[in-house]
Every structure is written in C-alpha cells, then in structure tokens.
Design brief:
Length: 751
DNA sequence: CTAAAAACTTAGCACTGACAGG
DNA sequence: CCTGTCAGTGCTAAGTTTTTAG
C-alpha cells in the first residue's frame, strides 16, 4: 500500500512532482521524512538486486592475495610482538624493536634509474605496490620495507643537511640539556614499517596517567566586588565563579547578544543560593566591571613577570607535560594530544548558536571514564576522589572520556597526530583517496547517467554527488533544530541556498550558492553547471518553499550507502580528500618552473596550496593588522629598491674603475660589488614574493588543507624533486605528523 | 533494520613567545 | 633595550562516519 504510493511519488516524469502528501510531509518534522526515505531505500535495494556487486569480486581477490602474503611472512612479527608484550610489562620506554635486521638484505631495485617514464614502467608498479593498499588493513609486504629503509638511509644525509646544522647546536653544544631530560629513543620509531592490526583492535597495551584537571576555582580577593543594582553584594563561591566567567568576557561582543545573556543568566541562577536567586533577577542590574578590571590587571601582571617567574611556570608546565603528556601504547611512548580537561566556562558556539552563553560545567574525576589495559598501572584519581569507571576497550583509541553538558556529547582524550594510531589512519585516508582516483571516471559517468533516471531519489543523489565532487562540498548531515547553529552541507541544502540563472554574465546554466557551512563560514560561489544538472535543480525546486530541503529524497546515509557500493571505503568526504590532493599535485606540476629560485618555488607551492584552500572554502578572518603589515612590507620593498639602485651605481663605478686601473684590487672590488647587487636582488625578490603571497592569502587559510586534505607525500616528493628543504613547507609539528610521508615518499611519488 | 550514541576528523580563532626592527 | 609582529600552538567546537541499541 504505502509502497505503491511512494513509488508514484518517485517518478520524475509526468504530472506534478510533489503530490499534496509530499508537500505536507515537508512541512512536517524531519523525522517523518526520514522514515519515508528509509522505506524507499529499502524497496529500492530489493528491486535492484546486486548489479553493483560485480565490481567487488576483484577486490576480494586482492584481499585474499594480501592475506596470503601476510600469512607467509608474519611469523617473525608475531614473535616480535610477544617480545614486546613482555617488555611492556617491564615498562621500559626505550626498548627498541629489532627491525633493522630485516632490512639488512639488499633489494635488487635500482633506485637511481627510475626518473623518467614514471607512469608505465614496471618499476613504477613496484613503487606503487609499495604504498599500502589500505583495504588490506593488514600488512605491507616485507620487501617494501626493505626498499624503504634503504632509501631512507641513503637519503637522510641530503634531506637533513639543514637540520643537522640546527640540531648540532641543540644537541651537540648543549650538554646540560636545558633540564629537559629527554630520554626519547635515539632513533625515531618507524611504525609505518611495521605490521598493522587487523580486526579493529587498536592496541594491545595501554598505560597512562589520566587527565590533568582544571585548577580549582580561586575566590576573588574581598576588595574585588560585585554590584547588584548599584550596591556591593557578596556572592557564594559557586555563583561567584560563574560570574567571573562572564566578567572575563565583558569586552567581547557576544556578552551583548540576547541569546548569550539569556543563556548565561539562566545557568548562572542555577548556581546561586536561594537568597542570591531571590535577589538577582535582572542581568542588566549586575555590575561586573570591578571583576573585569581585576582580571585585566592579572593579565598585565602576568605579562610583567620577571624572567625567573616565567621560567618557573614554564618548567612546571614541562613537568606536567612529562608526567601526563605521554602514554605507553604497545611498547612505545607516545604523545597525548589533549591531556588537560577542558576548564569550566561559558560556552562560545560559532555563528548564531542557540546555546551560546550556557555554562560549561567543571569536570570532576567522578565524570571521567578511563580506558587502559587491564595489565597496566591504572591512573590514580586525585586524592579523595574516584573515577566514574575504568574500562579496557582496545577497540577504541581514546584514553579518557567524559560527557560534556552543553550538547551531551562525549569528549575524548586521544593521541597526538604524530602517534602511530593517528598516523596509520591518516595514511589510510590518503590511500582510500588514491583508490578513488582509479575509479573516479567510472563514478562520474555513473552519476551523469543517473541525472536521467526516472526516479527522483536517484537524480537527487546524482546531482548531490556532482556537487560534492565538483565543488568539494561536505556531506551535510541533518542537525537537530535549535541545538546548533543553522548550517548546512550538500545533502542538507535548502531551496533558499541556491539561485538558478539560465544565463548570466555570458555563461549558461549558472547556479549561485550562498549558505553557511561548517563553523558558520559562508560559502558563496557562482558556478556554471551542465544543462542536465540545471534542469534537475529546477525540478527539485518546483513547488517548494525556500526553507524546504533541496534534496528532499536524500540524506547522508543514503548517499554514503550508495558510495560504499561504488567503491569499498568510499564516503562523501573522500571526494574532498581526493580532489584536494589531486588539485595540489596538478597545480604543483603546472606552477613550478625549473629555473625559479627557492623562494619563487615556494610561492608556487603556496599558490597550489591556495588553490586547494579555495576549493575547500577554507577561510579566515583577515588578520586585524593585515593592512598595516602589508604597508610595512611595501615600505621595506621600497627601501630595498633604493638600496639596489645604489648598489648598481656602485658596481658601475667599480667597473669603470677596474677598466682603467686593471689591477687585482679593483677587479676584486668589482666582484664584491657584483655579489652585493646579486644579494640585494635576491632579497628584493624575496620580499616581493612575500608581499604577493601575503596579499593573496588575505582571507584564505592554508593550514587546514595542508593538515587534513593534502597527501603529504605529494609535498614531500615535490620538495625532493626540486631540492627544497622540507622545513620550508612543514614546520616542526607538521614534520612530526607527516614523518611517515617524509620517510617514505620519493621524488617521483604520484598520488 | 533505524535512531541514537560513540568515535574520530576537521575547523577557525585566541593566545603566546620568539624574534626582528627601532 | 623595548615593542610590535607573526608563526606556531593549544583549544575545543563542529563536522562526518562508524558502531550500538532498541
């Protein structure tokens, strides 16, 4: 019954597309809609049967092959792991895995001889295979390891040229070690040369010290007062603490926002004693200015501290870092990302957030769930307290979790990006994107076909996928209304977010997007699309209100299910990764020119990076000092130009002089003047490049794409190819995160 | 299954300390 | 020396995807 009904609704051709019942539904709550989707989806599935599954047989084969490989070669590993377990119990941090031996034998591969002909040579096949294929969550073939290692060793000296200079100072000439008793293993652990866990196990051993709690509240000195209705009033400790949160933010804009004030006041009152509650009924009558002043003074005082005091604080932080900032996971000491519990305060949502100003409550040990090995030494809760729970779940990666009170979501303490567990995942992400590269043509053809489908839901799916692919939009999960800011992604686009122009600015079939995406960052774009897409959009928008969903027959779970059928591991966000990385690679190829010097090459890199950031809509507020700093730079450039022409004049003079005198001394003078000119030219060039770069970067944030979307091996390969020191591209943190890529990518790496 | 919860990635901004320039 | 600037980093919100529970 309902099946027939909705089937007719599904038809694209003929008659009004949205029957009354559809419209009705749209006005209803979202949940209703979803149920309908799901039903339809179900029906679809059974109708279509398994035509899609053919594609997979191949993959399964591959998997099997890999398994074989694994079984044939892992015994050594197993032993090694056993060893490790033992060692863990002894808790020695620096026991080294004995991998080296395995790298001892020579690989027949000749590295030097593969520069050209990258694409089809069998050698290249090898190097491709060496990259992990990712759906084999298991092993990388041994051989590879060997190759990698050898190469790595050969390469190191070159790569580290610059580094060595720096490190010498640090390591060599600082025997006292600045108190940083760093007992890190001398050689960095190359987890990427090791076997990975299968079957969802994330670790076998995990030991840590638990979280660091926010410092307890320190009551204000009695001379700092709060006034209500013009009269001083002493607050209870709890009420006072919350009041200080507000007082600290006083010169921030959102303390003027209604929603913020309302939420704050409501939550504040919850912390008050009945007496306070009875008295304090109007936020407008509250005067926090004395408190505000006090905190400002505190900040000043902190700035004005002596070096010794600052050093002391620094040392204390370092001590805490050493004590709590690391864990032992499977025999290796790993850095924890966020070992400090988020302190209490007022929630600052982004954009127009309905919950802004709410009290984010203090987290106590009783809220904390600890996750660690059974056979590890459990972290101690602070004296007189206890953990909510200690569990031993090695199917997850977190060490500590608690439930946050604003959204009721769970927060986690996890490892640093440089850790094995994050790195492997990251690597895997790029491998999935590379697999998409291999079948993206097929998928594109498919969705183009689907634009013609007679089923509405298929068409919507296909158009949405087209946007995700072409524009790198996010998937766009539906969100609960009133819980978060009103932002959308692809699947949750509403009619009001796009405008259609059959013709504009000399282009046909233009779609104008204007909506708020993640973090309430505006996405604005005018793009010409294919005619069929355009027609489809018109169809989707027919008879809808502005606030109706554009893709009313689609959500992220439908879309992702579809994608999963097209390629194993494929989800919407893989397209972002894929398109970002492939764009970087293409742009680098296009923009880098042989003869440019290093700064110019780096400008090219940044431009390539920028192309990606624009694609992904990674924006930033222009720095507050932007105009000024631009001006400063211009001044410098002008000065440098002056200097250059002066130097040129001098050179001319010297030349003339040398012509006359013809002695050694004057020749030398010419040489040195020449060098001076050259040097100044370089400097000028550098400044100009810097200016260009900065100007172009005004509202674009490069960091996000660099960190999350660009296969680091592309950048590493580029650096190696052009002899650019990796430090010019990645700072220290980034180098740590991408250590795997820096170690393994060769100059001919191809995404 | 399907919704909700959990897990994990991605995101911009505020703060800070090192360092360049006066 | 002091001051301003800016890159680097910490923070935590806000997404997506995966897993679980009902």
């Amino acid at each position: 019954m309902s099946g027939d009904h909705s089937h007719s609704e599904d038809q694209v051709d003929g008659g009004p597309r949205f029957s009354d019942s559809q419209k009705h539904k749209d006005k209803f709550k979202k949940e209703h809609k979803h149920k309908d989707h799901k039903k339809e989806k179900e029906r679809e599935k059974s109708k279509h049967g398994n035509s899609d599954h053919k594609d997979f047989s191949d993959k399964k084969h591959k998997d099997k092959e890999k398994m074989k490989h694994k079984d044939g070669s892992t015994d050594k590993y197993k032993d090694k792991y056993k060893e490790k377990r033992k060692e863990e119990k002894i808790k020695s941090f620096d026991c080294k895995v004995k991998l080296e031996k395995e790298n001892g034998f020579d690989s027949p591969l000749h590295l030097k001889s593969e520069p050209e002909n990258i694409f089809h040579s069998p050698k290249n096949d090898k190097s491709l295979k060496r990259e992990r294929d990712d759906d084999d969550y298991e092993i990388k073939p041994k051989k590879i390891k060997t190759e990698n290692d050898k190469k790595a060793k050969k390469r190191k000296p070159q790569v580290e040229d610059i580094k060595t200079v720096k490190t010498k100072n640090k390591k060599g000439e600082m025997p006292d070690g600045k108190k940083k008793a760093k007992k890190e293993p001398e050689e960095k652990w190359k987890w990427w040369e090791e076997e990975r866990y299968t079957d969802g196990v994330k670790w076998k051993f995990l030991e840590h010290k638990g979280p660091v709690f926010a410092p307890p509240y320190e009551p204000l000195p009695s001379n700092v007062r709060f006034y209500y209705d013009g009269k001083p009033m002493v607050l209870s400790a709890d009420a006072e603490e919350v009041a200080t949160f507000f007082a600290k933010m006083l010169d921030h804009e959102y303390t003027t926002k209604d929603v913020f004030r309302k939420n704050f006041f409501k939550d504040w009152r919850k912390e008050m004693t009945p007496e306070e509650k009875a008295k304090i009924t109007d936020l407008k009558k509250c005067d926090f200015s004395e408190m505000h002043q006090y905190f400002k003074a505190q900040t000043e005082a902190r700035k004005a501290m002596t070096k010794e005091e600052k050093l002391k604080i620094k040392e204390e932080n370092e001590r805490i870092l050493q004590q709590f900032g690391f864990c032992i996971m499977d025999n290796h000491k790993e850095r924890i990302a966020n070992f400090r519990i988020e302190p209490p305060g007022l929630f600052r949502g982004r954009g127009d957030h309905p919950k802004m100003g709410m009290l984010k409550r203090r987290i106590r040990p009783e809220d904390i769930i600890i996750n660690c090995s059974k056979d590890s030494k459990y972290p101690e809760p602070p004296p007189g307290t206890r953990w909510k729970e200690v569990r031993h779940d090695n199917k997850v990666t977190w060490l500590v979790s608690w439930t946050e009170n604003i959204q009721g979501s769970i927060k986690y303490i996890m490892l640093n990006p440089s850790s094995r567990i994050k790195g492997e995942k990251d690597w895997q992400k790029y491998e999935t994107a590379r697999r998409l590269k291999k079948c993206v043509d097929r998928i594109r053809n498919q969705y183009r076909e689907d634009w013609k489908s007679k089923e509405m839901r298929i068409r919507q799916r296909a158009v949405a996928l087209y946007f995700i692919d072409k524009l790198a939009l996010r998937a766009g999960n539906e969100k609960e209304e009133g819980e978060t800011a009103d932002t959308v992604g692809c699947c949750s686009l509403r009619v009001e977010h796009i405008k259609l122009y059959p013709e504009i600015d000399g282009q046909e079939y233009v779609v104008e997007f204007d909506f708020l995406g993640k973090d309430s960052i505006r996405y604005y774009n005018k793009v010409p699309v294919e005619k069929r897409v355009f027609k489809n959009l018109q169809l989707f928008m027919e008879n809808k209100e502005p606030d109706d969903d554009l893709f009313d027959r689609l959500n992220t779970s439908i879309l992702n299910k579809h994608l999963q059928e097209l390629m194993d591991g494929l989800t919407a966000k893989v397209f972002r990764t894929y398109n970002a990385s492939i764009t970087l690679q293409a742009q680098l190829k296009e923009l880098t020119s042989e003869e440019e010097n290093i700064p110019a090459k780096i400008l090219s890199y940044n431009r390539a990076n920028r192309a990606v950031a624009i694609l992904c809509n990674h924006q930033r507020a222009p720095p507050k000092t932007f105009e000024k700093s631009m001006q400063n730079l211009q001044t410098k450039i002008d000065a440098k130009k002056e200097q250059l022409s002066a130097a040129k004049r001098e050179l001319k003079g010297a030349k003339a002089d040398a012509k006359v005198r013809k002695d050694e001394k004057s020749k030398k003078a010419v040489e040195s003047k020449k060098k001076a000119v050259q040097r100044i030219e370089d400097q000028l060039m550098k400044l100009e490049v810097q200016a260009t770069d900065r100007e172009e970067n005004k509202q674009i944030a490069l960091g996000t794409s660099k960190l999350n979307y660009l296969d680091p091996r592309i950048s590493v390969a580029w650096c190696k190819k052009w002899g650019i020191p990796i430090e010019k591209i990645y700072n220290k943190t980034q180098r740590e995160k991408f250590a795997w890529a820096i170690d393994m990518a060769e100059k001919d790496y191809e995404f």
